[in-house]
């Protein structure tokens, strides 16, 4: 088996890995690179192989940095199957169609500017039609059900515990067992099951997003949120929570449901103002087979994603009316890094009022509006305006869906079983990856490498 590491090497975005076995080529992941516009344009538009030569894609989960370039692959000639779990298919369908819509809208605006300057117009990376075509190629595979994406290679999905439907992927060929972690989740997180440790493997391809960091415990997060809401009730605050539409919103809703049931949310309406988050929540309702025991039991008694006082907002006019309402109230809205979507409008109308709150609940990339707010910027730019940050800013750091450094080292120890020969670290900025490399080597007598884009190995 030949493996070429292409994307998400020494970075956390654009996952893409080429596998070759007996002159058959298939991919693990086909994600969008998300970064500076020029780099993203170059990387996303160029495949270092002919898409028509790829027989299949095996997809670990639906996040855009793992699935987002599939429509472009199809546009450029790919005709094979895209294998994933049923929940991943349902979430990826929403994400890919939304990505295509955003690109078409962005390029429509860009091309108006191009024409005004007498410059040639540009095409989006892919269209809605390309995304719709990609969706038709999905092939659903259940957890622990073995299949062959190409002749002679057996593949099995196991729960990665990262987001709904996410998978750790086991590949078997000619006696070798290769485990690909995808994005690995954390133990004892709400809604979904814990990551499965697959033992008796020869090679491990492991993510390293937080390889050098330790997360806060999730256990105290509900109490922390309760305390912030109590403060907001006293000050009649609007509490704005930028939240990722997949997983983070659903976790927050279940936390708020618990707080409602104990009385904390009396007279505090809650709005999920994100059409995508609303659609994804419906996918969660349709896949109780992915739930942990606690959530499954909750689902048997009632809808874990609904409670009195909670409203899911689809209509744009209803969203705008929220800006006219007075607190106390909670608005959860995308995007999670405040780079677009409805949350930007809520920030415009709330950020300059000192009685309001902004609760950041996830990783904020450098250069994003969310990162600027989190780092204490006195003023921020939103669209064409400048706004003074007077709202209180809080960070809830225990909600990450990624394993931290300790989790990743522990995972290696769980899967090695005396047979593991080599670990390859991907999907992490180089500082995080190098920190994890050192920790693994210190606690295990195993070779650990950090491939670059284009690194080829034979196993």
TrEMBL record:
Q: Does the keyword Hydrolase apply?
A: yes
- Domain (Metallo-beta-lactamase) spans 13-244
Coiled-coil zones: none
Specify whether Electron transport is a keyword of the entry. no
Q: Which Pfam families match?
A: Beta-Casp, Lactamase_B, RMMBL
User: What positions does the domain Beta-Casp occupy?
Assistant: 249-373
Give UniProt keywords alphabetically: Hydrolase
An example of a GO molecular function for this protein is:
hydrolase activity
Its domain of life? Bacteria
Q: Please identify the protein, giving its name as recorded.
A: MBL fold metallo-hydrolase
């Amino acid at each position: 088996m030949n493996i070429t590491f292409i994307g998400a090497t020494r970075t956390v975005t654009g996952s893409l890995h080429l596998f070759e076995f007996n002159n058959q080529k298939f991919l693990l992941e086909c994600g969008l690179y998300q970064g500076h516009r020029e780099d993203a344009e170059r990387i996303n538009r160029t495949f270092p192989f002919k898409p028509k030569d790829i027989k299949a894609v095996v997809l670990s989960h639906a996040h855009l940095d793992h699935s987002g370039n599939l429509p472009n692959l199809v546009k450029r000639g790919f005709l094979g199957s895209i294998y994933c779990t049923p929940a991943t298919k349902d979430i990826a369908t929403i994400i890919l169609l939304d990505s295509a819509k955003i690109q078409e809208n962005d390029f429509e605006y860009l091309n108006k500017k191009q024409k005004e300057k007498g410059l040639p117009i540009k095409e989006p990376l892919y269209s809605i039609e390309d995304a719709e075509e990609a969706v038709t190629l999905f092939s659903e595979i259940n957890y622990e059900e073995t299949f062959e994406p190409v002749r002679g290679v057996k593949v099995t999905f196991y729960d990665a515990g990262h987001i709904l439907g996410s998978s750790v992927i086991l590949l078997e060929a000619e006696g070798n067992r290769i485990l690909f972690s995808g994005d690995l989740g954390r133990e004892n997180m709400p809604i979904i099951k814990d990551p499965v440790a697959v033992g008796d493997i020869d090679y491990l391809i492991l993510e390293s997003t937080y390889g050098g960091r330790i997360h806060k415990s999730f256990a105290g997060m509900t109490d922390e949120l309760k305390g912030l809401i109590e403060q907001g009730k006293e000050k009649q605050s609007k509490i704005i929570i930028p939240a990722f539409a997949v997983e983070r919103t659903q976790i927050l809703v279940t936390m708020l449901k618990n707080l409602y049931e104990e009385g904390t949310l009396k007279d505090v309406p809650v709005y999920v103002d994100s059409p995508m988050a609303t659609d994804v929540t419906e996918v969660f309702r349709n896949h109780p087979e992915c739930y942990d025991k606690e959530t499954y039991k909750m689902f048997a008694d009632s809808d874990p994603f609904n409670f009195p006082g909670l409203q899911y907002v689809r209509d744009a006019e209803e969203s705008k009316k929220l800006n006219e309402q007075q607190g106390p109230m909670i608005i959860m809205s995308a995007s999670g890094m405040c780079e677009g979507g409805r949350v930007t409008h809520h920030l415009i109308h709330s950020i300059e009022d000192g009685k309001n709150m902004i609760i950041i609940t996830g990783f904020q990339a450098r250069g994003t509006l969310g990162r600027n707010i989190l780092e204490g910027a006195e003023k921020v730019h939103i669209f064409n305006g400048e706004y003074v940050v007077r709202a209180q800013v809080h960070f809830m750091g225990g909600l990450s869906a990624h394993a931290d450094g300790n989790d990743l080292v522990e995972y290696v120890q769980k899967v090695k079983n005396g047979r593991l020969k080599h670990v390859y670290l991907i999907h992490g900025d180089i500082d995080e990856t190098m920190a994890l490399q050192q920790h693994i080597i210190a606690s295990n007598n195993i070779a650990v490498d950090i491939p670059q884009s284009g690194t080829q190995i034979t196993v």
